Amino acid sequence: MSEMLAGNIVVTGTNRGIGLELIKQLAQNTAEGTHIYACCREPGGTSAEALRALPTQYPGKITVIKLDMSDEDSISAAVLAVSRQIGADGLNLLINNAAVNKPALPAPLSATGKEHMMEVYETNVAGPFILTKLFLPLLQRAAERGSAENGNTMSCRRSAIINISTLISSIEKCPETFPVAQMYPYRTSKAALNMLTRCQAEDFKMHNILVTAIHPGWVRTDMGGEEAPLTTQDSVLGMLNVMSSLSNKDSGKLLDWQGDIIPW
After folding, report:
1. Does domain 8-256 have CATH number 3.40.50.720?
2. What torsion, rounded to 10 degrees, do the Cα atoms 26, 30, 34, 36 define?
3. Rounded CA gap, 183 and 109, in Å?
4. Which of 19, 120, 135, 234 could bond to 14 as cystine, CB 3.0-4.6 Å?
């Protein structure tokens, strides 16, 4: 990594897959004094056993937080819990990773209803919107604390929002990717997340808060399937390398896990 990530970091959707691997690698490869808030819907459930083991493995570095991105009360409670622990230091990095895909793959049009569109949009777009809005004062605080040292330079060490997006959100690339999986709700929600990224980048640049969307690649997870070429380890290693080198020029962009620009 060009610059080791540090400070207070929040990651959503961390009980499995890419989110769980993000917590593992952040715990291993961040600067001393970093604290990671690992958010998931059911911290006490069987699907979060691997996540619950990590705070013991990395004492004092990880706090598990209950967070349901489809529930505004849950989002508010999670922000309050994190705020109480962070105090005056502010939030350096928010990674909006939590997402759902419905109906089940291959998710053709014939199997997709209004309820799928609304449920996916609620978690994948409205959730990150509300969470980021509520965390904005803490992100501003971190950006302000770095003003003397960094001036107007933005980075993930200072104050940043990373929205985990996807190649199949690209409108330009749709003719290439659509035959593989139609996934109407997921595609359209992630395209909306890209616009949210652009809006936030414009809105927050006055505060020197960086906002970037990143495609993790086609990853071997429950959502990606067994045919995916990338492991979670390689995807997350690549994304963290990209995050560690982001600056002002990358705010408002959609990049892939290797740092290449994906067209809107």
Report:
1. yes
2. 0
3. 8
4. 19
The sheet with strand 210-215 has its strands ordered as: 62-66, 35-40, 8-11, 93-96, 160-164, 210-215, 254-256
What would the pLDDT profile of 215-262 be if each residue is shown by its tens digit?
999 887 777 777 777 899 999 999 999 999 999 999 999 999 999 999
Per this entry, what is the length of the chain?
A: 264
The DSSP symbol for 16 reads S
From the CB of residue 140, how many other CB atoms can be counted at a distance below 10 Å?
18
50: helix, coil or strand? helix
Residue 262, sorted as left (phi over 0), alpha (psi -120 to 50) or beta, turns out to be beta
Take residue 230 and report the two structure tokens written for it: 């990338």
Nearest to 222 by CA among 21, 39, 24, 17: 17
Dihedral Cα 238, 218, 24, 68, nearest 10 deg: 130
Task: Return d(Cα 185, Cα 205) in angstroms, integer.
Answer: 30
**Which CB contacts under 8 angstroms, 24+ apart, belong to 170-178?**
170/254, 170/262, 170/263, 170/264, 171/264, 172/263, 172/264, 173/262, 173/263
Closest CA to 88 of 148, 144, 31: 144
Spatial contact of 255 and 262, defined as CB atoms under 8 Å apart: yes
